[in-house]
Design goal:
563 residues; seven-stranded mixed β-sheet; elongated; four-stranded antiparallel β-sheet; 18 helices
């Protein structure tokens, strides 16, 4: 791309000095006024073609996730903009001496290139077009990923192509879609003029929308005066509206394509967001109250078996309906239950020390926990083994650091109190979990607690002593707890029980929902939910965490959502 910019700027400088050194006067706005005064309506209609002079340059900065704002400002100010100005001034200088020849006028750029350099310049132009298209593609990947994280686009497969450079991703479905659309437009139009009209309207529409959104940023984020916004909109908006109106004249000549694609993708995003929102509202309205849980007692009215039940839910408070649906149909559940909610928050990154929110559901003896894992829309999810380790370390750290409360005071409101717990990698002073592989000898675990030395500070390690048993092999799990502050006996027992449950194994309980419009809904709603959203749900990817969960440990609970 740098070679292409330097090439066209060098050719522009050559044409300026060779054909018309006085062409620099065209930079004066006076000639723009003179042009419109002379051409009138014809000059206004030609703005749609003049707009093509700036289309393409924005492709270099389409993927803003790969570049900083400072690098973009420096590159555009000192390289891109001067190169474009010199190139177009060179073409203007050439055309000022060859405007009588209509053939040269139609293909002014390549005719203005010296004959010996035309083929090398054409080769460089093709390579630059490849780079520009790649920038558009990677930019599309980043936008789709962010929209999907915010619940505004169906889930797609996202592949991180680099383990060192953050933000480099690949989405196969979007890549194939872009290829098919490009082939369809090329085969359908077979005319660069119509393709140029489509590109021009798309670019000026993006500019106009950006200006409108920028006005909101000036008021809401920068807290500037409304008069400054009016001045900003008047200066930039009037220019862009002028180009936009000229591009709309070419609507039937190819400019309808970006409008049609925008409507299609807007409909997809609206249907998905609407269906997802209605599904979440159903979860909130049908969640189980804490009083229902307290009425069941510590055993939840069923048999508690060894192990951990990890229930995935979208709720950040309350008990999901899937849990009540499960316990009312099956007579047993795990001794430790964790309601896990993985949330994408509308910020780029969440600091590791603020990754988890951990709290209780019900009294201590129920052994029910809620954990909310928060990720920004540009965060990379860890692998499953490391995530599970961070998850249980955060629960153990919550148990260790929880302040003792008076019995009966915290029972009703404990579900509302959440503690911010960092990932184990960012919380070096917190609880650490050690998992050993299969021991050389088979063992049966008996609980005990001891104190051991680790470096320069003491830490209490909840371990398991061994008695020989040839029956089976089992993973050994240990929590290493800092010596200060000291933890009470109840917390030690709770950590011991969590450790035993981790050793016994973990089951993943996933909800499989079927969303349907309830009776009495309007025809539009039935079409959107029963046809549109259902089609998108069945053809979109499942949650990222569900794809890597071992099938032998997975239990799906189906429910019908009437929204």
């Amino acid at each position: 791309m740098i070679t292409w910019l330097l090439c066209i700027s060098a050719i522009g400088v050559y044409n300026i000095f060779h054909w018309n050194p006085h062409v620099y006067q065209a930079l004066s706005p006076y000639y723009m006024y003179k042009f419109f005064k002379k051409t009138k309506k014809g000059g206004w209609m030609s703005l749609g073609g003049i707009l093509l002079c700036i289309t393409g340059s924005e492709a270099m900065f389409a993927d803003l996730g790969h570049f900083s704002q400072l690098s973009i400002k420096i590159a555009f100010t000192f390289l891109v903009y001067p190169s474009l100005i010199l190139a177009y001034m060179g073409q203007a200088a050439y055309l000022s001496m060859h405007h009588i020849n209509e053939t040269d006028y139609q293909i002014g750029f390549y005719v203005s290139v010296p004959e010996k350099l035309r083929w090398p310049v054409l080769a460089i132009a093709i390579l630059a077009a490849v780079v520009g298209s790649q920038a558009i593609i990677t930019g599309t990947f980043s936008i789709i990923k962010q929209c999907s994280a915010l619940g505004c686009f169906p889930r797609v497969k996202i592949i991180h192509t680099s383990s060192k450079i953050h933000g480099q991703i690949y989405i196969p479905e979007i890549n194939w879609t872009l290829m098919l659309l490009c082939l369809a437009v090329t085969v359908g139009f077979r005319d660069t003029k119509r393709m140029g009209n489509a590109s021009g309207l798309a670019v000026i529409t993006v500019m106009l929308v950006t200006t409108c959104l920028m006005s909101l940023v000036i008021v809401l984020c920068w807290h500037k005066s409304v008069y400054l916004v009016i001045l900003f909109m008047f200066f930039f908006g009037s220019i862009e509206v002028l180009y936009f109106s000229a591009s709309l004249i070419k609507f039937l000549e190819g400019a309808w394509v970006p409008i049609a694609l925008a409507l299609i993708f807007s409909a997809i995003m609206y249907v998905w967001h609407y269906g997802t929102l209605k599904k979440y509202e159903f979860d909130v309205q049908n969640k189980v109250s804490i009083n229902w849980l307290l009425a069941l007692g510590p055993n939840l009215g069923i048999v508690r078996v060894r192990g951990i039940g990890l229930i995935h839910t979208e709720l950040v408070s309350g008990i999901p309906a899937i849990f009540s649906h499960f316990v009312t149909n099956l007579p047993a559940f795990h001794q430790v239950v964790v309601f896990l909610c993985i949330k994408s928050v509308p910020v780029p990154h969440v600091r590791p020390k603020e990754r988890f929110l951990v709290g209780r559901v019900g009294p201590k003896e129920y052994r029910l926990y809620r954990c909310i894992a928060r990720y920004g829309y540009r965060d990379i999810h860890k692998d499953d083994l490391e995530f599970e380790k961070d998850l249980f370390c955060s629960i153990a750290e919550f148990i260790r650091s929880e302040r003792p409360c008076i019995v009966g005071i915290d029972d009703m409101g404990s579900d509302e109190r959440m503690a911010v717990i960092g990932a184990s990698s960012s919380n070096l002073q917190g609880v650490r979990m050690c998992e050993d592989g299969d021991d050389q000898e088979s063992s049966e675990m008996v609980e005990s607690t001891k104190t051991c030395e680790h470096g320069d500070h003491d830490s209490s390690e909840i371990v398991s002593t061994e008695t020989k048993s040839p029956e089976r092999l089992r993973k050994r799990v240990r929590f290493v707890v800092p010596e200060s502050p000291r933890i009470d006996t109840d917390a030690q027992e709770e950590l011991q029980e969590l450790m035993e449950a981790r050793e016994a194994g973990m089951a993943f309980i996933l909800g499989h929902s079927y969303v349907r419009a309830k009776k009495g809904s309007s025809l539009v709603k039935r079409i959107v939910i029963n046809l549109g959203y259902d089609f998108l749900r069945r053809n979109s990817r499942g949650p990222s965490y569900a794809l890597s969960i071992p099938h032998a440990s997975t239990l799906e609970v189906g429910m019908v959502y009437l929204v």
